[in-house]
Amino acid sequence: MAQIFVNIPLWVYPLFIVLILLGLRACKDRLTPVWVLYLMPLLGLLSVNRALSLGPVALGLLLLAACAGVWVGLHLQPRWTVRREGARVHLRGERLTLVTLLVLFCANFIAGAGQSIAPEVTAGLAFGFGWGVPVGLLSGSLLGRALSVARLPM
Question: What are the domain boundaries of the chain?
Answer without folding.
Answer: 2-150
